[in-house]
Specification:
- The chain is α/β, with parallel strands linked by helices.
- The chain contains 9 helices and 12 strands.
- The protein has 2 domains: about 80 residues, Winged helix-like DNA-binding domain superfamily/Winged helix DNA-binding domain (Arc Repressor Mutant, subunit A), CATH 1.10.10.10; about 230 residues, D-Maltodextrin-Binding Protein, domain 2, CATH 3.40.190.
- Strands 3, 4, 5, 6, 9, 10, 11 and 12 form an 8-stranded mixed beta sheet that branches.
- Strand 3, helix 5 and strand 4 form a beta-alpha-beta unit.
- The longest helix is centred in the first third of the chain and has 30 residues.
- The radius of gyration is 24 Å and the shape is globular.
- The protein starts with a helix and ends in a 9-residue tail after the last strand.
- About 35% of the residues are buried.
- Belongs to the LysR transcriptional regulatory family.
- Keywords: DNA-binding, Transcription, Transcription regulation.
- This is LysR family transcriptional regulator.
Length: about 325
């Protein structure tokens, strides 16, 4: 029988790089660390770590066991939190991930209709798609709004289900006083010498869309700033010192900016609702109602009137290997 302390010890050794550091991390004595490690190795009949003058590293068997150990420890932490939440609120809690622009546009009205705080307890976690999807897969989140570049492929995973809520074309965001702002449609080649405000991540959908379209137009974008902060991006564009890529529904009308289509195809941002495929009975009804309300909210989204091909088609599978946008 496995002892959870053995799994925690293996995790600590992997994180800290030595038995001594693992002992300090877990507030154990080093002999206790060694005891639990050796017991785990005997149980598995495999050597899990190798020590040298430079520290302790995991063997191939140790790495494999670590993956399972961390999954077990994560699930136990989630289970403990679920039980505590049930005791505190008297009912299940939905932990939902979201990103800034869709969260601000869709969720306030949706959560108000859902009865948040009265019939359903919802905890929101803001983040980027890659981090949120990892939390979905390890059970830390029950559902999330995620975005990616339309056309990205998904890897089937029975643990998650997903539904496309919106598809919206990327646009060029310019300051209202930019020389090209008066044009209805812009040739991207005319911005070959412009300074661009870009994402910090090459996995971002907007960044990949920009690089693809710019490459087709024959140039590599100059970088003025790399940021995911929408307020900062808008401020720089409004001041006329840079241009960027955006979807129209994410344009902040408090700033003097415009969003224009291009001669070139910039691609589309896809927004999806992703949830646990087999939720606990106490959460299933709330998740189904949340999905229904999100679909209703997406139907009246301004993006739907922009030729964005907003769709409401069920899709099975996970986004574990989907690049974020």
């Amino acid at each position: 029988m496995f002892d959870l302390r053995q799994l925690a010890v293996l995790d600590a050794i992997a994180r800290t790089g030595s038995l001594a550091a693992a002992a300090r991390d877990l507030h154990y004595g080093q002999p206790t660390i060694s005891h639990h490690l050796r017991a785990l190795e005997r149980h598995l009949d495999s050597e899990l770590v190798v020590s040298s003058a430079t520290g302790t590293t995991l063997t191939a068997a140790g790495e494999l066991m670590l993956e399972h150990a961390r999954a077990v420890l994560t699930r136990l932490r989630v289970a403990a939190r679920d039980v505590a939440e049930l005791g505190q609120s008297g009912g299940p809690v939905l932990r939902m991930g979201t990103f800034e622009s869709a969260g601000a546009r869709l969720l306030p009205q949706v959560l108000a209709k859902l009865g948040t705080g009265r019939t359903v307890q919802v905890e929101l976690v803001e983040g980027e798609p890659l981090g949120l999807q990892e939390q979905l897969l390890d059970g830390s989140l029950h559902c999330a709004l995620l975005y990616d570049l339309d056309g990205d492929t998904s890897v089937t995973d029975a643990a998650l289900r997903q539904r496309t809520l919106e598809r919206e074309p990327f646009r060029i965001m310019l300051g209202a006083d930019h020389p090209l702002a008066e044009r209805e449609v812009i040739d991207l080649a005319d911005l070959a010498e412009a300074d661009w405000i870009r994402s910090r991540s090459v996995l971002e959908a907007s960044e990949r869309a920009l690089l693809t379209a710019a490459g087709a137009a024959g140039f590599v974008p100059n970088t003025l700033l790399q940021s995911e902060d929408y307020s900062l991006v808008h401020a720089f564009v409004a001041a006329g010192v840079g241009v960027g890529l955006i979807v129209e529904s994410a344009v902040d009308t408090r700033y003097r900016v415009v969003a224009r289509p291009t001669v070139q195809d910039l691609g589309m941002r896809r927004v999806r609702f992703v949830a646990t495929a087999t939720p606990e009975p106490g959460r299933a009804a709330a998740l189904a109602r949340l999905e229904e309300l999100l679909i209703e909210a997406a139907e009246v989204n301004p993006a739907a009137s922009m030729g964005s091909m907003t769709t409401f088609v069920d899709e099975r599978g996970s986004i574990a290997n989907t690049s974020p946008s």
